[in-house]
User: What shape does this take?
Amino acid sequence: MKTVLITGCSSGFGLAIARYFLDREWNVIATMRTPREDVLPRSERLRVLALDVTDADSIGRLIDAAGPIDVLVNNAGIGMLGALEGAAMATAREVFETNTLGTMAMVQAVLPQFRQRRAGVIVNVTSSVTLKSLPLLSVYTASKAAVNAFTESLALELEQFNVRVKLVLPGRAPATSFGANAQSRIQVPEAYAELAQNVFAAWGESSEVTLSADVAEAVWRAANDAAAPMRIAAGADAVALAGLH
Assistant: This one.
């Protein structure tokens, strides 16, 4: 029975991924900043553990508690919406600390066991905004594009150890709480208000979106299909964008 460790499982994609693997008889280690047992079904194959991907001590405690794993899914992330001119650099650093450096730190933490066993899979969840640039998302896009580049270079390093590294690129998912969680990081100066109104209106008219189930299925494929491509788009809108590349 294989074990998957998933970051950012309190809601949205992470929660759906944890449920998907549980339903398929895997051992699941679901991590959250503040662990909540009630969001997932009770199971002997489930452990809910605390993790802050920006805290080295938290990562160390998690790795010790988790024990051997077969797959790492880096899903934890935070959003940031706004024009760069009005963006606080402290907020930009917060986004990179979680989305980019947090992913790197988690990968670094599991690599010794993967390398020694000459087995393991790393799945990094980024975003379809890296396929098509959108206004008011420059900092967020940069944090995710950096993970794309990191992942593709890392895959070359780890090929010699039979460790696979994949990317899952979800589209826009209005049904999740991701947008609401980013409310505190919306920074739109008055000069950009009209642009913001137009952007929000366009998003409201979009019929193609991503569901959490789309992302769970894509992560499952990345974890289990050795022939899967490096980049897997998840969601109708993301698949459409990927087809243009």
Q: What stands out?
A: The first strand starts at residue 3 and ends at 6. The chain has a mean pLDDT of 95. Helices lie at 12-23, 56-66, 89-117, 138-158, 178-181, 193-205, 212-224, 236-242. Residues 10 and 38 are 10 Å apart (CA to CA).
